[in-house]
Amino acid sequence: MPTAQTSLAAVSYTDEGSGPPILLLHAALHDHTDFDPVRASLGQGRRVLTLDWPGHGASPPPPEPLRAVEFGDLLVEFADLLDLRGLVVVGNSVGGYAACRLALERPERVSGVVLVNTGGFTPHSVFTRFFCAVMGRPAVVRAAFPAFVRAYTRAKNSADAAVVRRVVDRARTPDGAKIAAALWKSFTEPGHDLRTRASGIAAPVLITWGAEDLTAPARWGRAVAAAIPGSSFETFPTGHVAFSSAPAAWLNTVLPFVDAANGVRQEVNRRG
Q1: For the chain, percent helix, then strand, then coil, each to nearest 5?
Q2: What are phi and psi of 78, to 5 degrees?
C-alpha cells in the first residue's frame, strides 16, 4: 500500500481502477478490509480508494493518538495531497464524521457523501458523556471491546466475523487500546458535534443505517437526516457495518446514488 504523509501522521491507502473516484473510510479500530465485500462492485467503472486511519491496518501508529476532530483534519489534507475531485466519500462511524468535514471544508472536491452509522451527530447526555469518559481509558477498551464490538456489529456472516476478530485483536494491543481510548474521550468535544454545521453540506447525502446496532439506534440516524437538508435515509436489518452484513442490499441503495452524484457533479462542471 502507498503511504501519504500528512502533518498529523502517515496513512496507508489503496488506489485502484479508473473513473470517478470513491473513497471508503472505516470505523475506529477497524481497517480498510471492512469494505472487501463491496469493493469489487464499487470498482466497476470507478476509481476506488481506501484509507487506514493512523494506527489502524497498515498505517503506523502516530507518536500520540489522534482525536476524532484530527481525523477530519487529516482527511482534508489527504484529499488535498492527492488532489481528489468529483469524489464520493463513504464514511462509517468516525469515518462518517470525517466525510462530513471534508464535504464542509472542501465542497469543490466532493460530489456526494454516503454515511453508515455515522458519528458526529450524537445528542450527548450525562450518560453518553460518562460512557465516553469511561471508554477513554485504555484498560477499559481492552476489557470491554470484545463484548462491545459484538454488540454493535451484530455479525451476520463470515465477513462480519472477521471484522469482529480484527477489532478485538487490535483492541487488545497497547497501541490499539490507546488509539481507541483517545478517540472515545474526544467524542464529546465541541468540534466533533456537527449538528449546527451540517446544513452547510452542499453535496447530496445518503444516510444508511444498520438498525440492529445496539450502540447507535435508528432514531440517531433519523436525527442525522433531519440535520442535513435534502438527505436520504435508509435502514437495514444489520449492525454497524451494513456494507459487510448485507452487501447486496446496501449496494442496491448506494450504487444509484453514487451514479447520480457523479452525474450531478459532471453536469455542474460542464455548465461551469
Answers
A1: 50, 15, 35
A2: -60, -45
Output the nine-digit C-alpha cell for 66. 489522534
Q: CA 145 to CA 103: how far, in whole Å?
A: 31
The Cβ of residue 219 has, within 10 Å, a number of other Cβ atoms equal to: 10
Residues across the chain = 272
Does pTM surpass 0.85?
yes
Three cell numbers written together for 46:
470507478
Q: In this structure, what DSSP letter does residue 34 have?
A: G
Handedness of CA 168, 213, 48, 199 (dihedral sign): negative
| DSSP labels, 144-157 | HHHHHHHHHH---S
Cell readout for 211 is 438498525
Please state the separation of Cα 40 from the chain's center in Å: 19
DSSP-derived pairing of the beta strands 110-116 and 87-92:
parallel
- Beta pairing, strands 3-5 & 21-25: unpaired
Identity of the amino acid at 145: F
% the chain with pLDDT above 90: 94
Average pLDDT of the chain to the nearest whole number: 95
Please report the DSSP string for 199-245 in residue order. Answer: GG--S-EEEEEETT-TTS-HHHHHHHHHHSTT-EEEEESS-S-HHHH
Nearest to 212 by CA among 129, 141, 117, 140: 117
Evaluate whether 43 touches 172 at the Cβ level (below 8 Å): no
Which residue in 118, 263, 123 sits closest to 203, CA to CA?
263
CA 242 to chain centre: 12
* Phi, psi of 192, rounded to the nearest 5 degrees: -85, -10
